[in-house]
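A quick word before the example. In earlier lectures we treated sequence and structure as two separate objects. From today on, think of them as two lines of the same record. Here is Chromosome undetermined scaffold_1, whole genome shotgun sequence written that way.
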Amino acid sequence: MSQIGYDIVKSEIPKSQNHSYCHSTGTQVRKYQLQSENKWQIDLEDLKSDFLYVINPSNPCGSVFSKEHVQEIIDWANQNRVLIVADEIYYGMSFGEFGPIIRLGEMDKMFFTPVWQISWMIFYDKNHYAVEIKQAMYNICQFLLYANVFVINSLPQILDQLTIFYARDRMTHFKENHDFLIQELDQIRGLKCIPAQGTFYLTVLIDLEVFQVKSDTEFAKKLLGEENIILLPLSWNGTEKYQGFRMLTIATKDVYVEMIGRLKEFVKRL
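And the structure line, produced from the sequence above:
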């Protein structure tokens, strides 16, 4: 898909691992802005590109675009003759019912198999507009590392016994943890949760002045040293605009109760 003269526009977060490959082919990768105050929707103003890379549901924001916003994106792409690449590896993982094109899927997120590195692309291309792009995808695969034979051979049995709703059926648990964390974390001085609409992530912004640090990385190191809590700094997703951390919501509630207790002690010592 990357060819000299093309450019791809992607979300300002998360950080992509494909920048180096795109750079080697002369492809320009630019970032579009997200609106944190509006459920992380895409700011479509002044957006120009050959390809629009859309992650929905999103990591690390946990956002799930509404049907209306998805239609806005599609309308914009149609008007500007831009191909949408829809990254949907968190398919079915929403807290509600939400209403492509190239659709991406991945074992890691759909069936909770971290680092198995098994993914796929589904082309909706009845008019054969993406023939060259399909060939480019085959070519790119030659540069990628594959999962081991044991993992690959297990895939047919997994797909036979499980369904694409495996993750969705566990969303009630994630939602309960998500709501509990927001209720507790928003009461801690210096923290502000950005509610998610899906996935198993929660984004929490931090006030650097309150915690007397210069960055979220410094905050994470300080928290690890004093309370033995490991959090992923939000800036590690490729932007300095948002200072905070990303959390998973898949653990049992007792884990979060203890973590929140440690966070409160951490704040008391400031």
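Notice the following. The mean pLDDT is 80. We will return to this example when we discuss secondary structure assignment.
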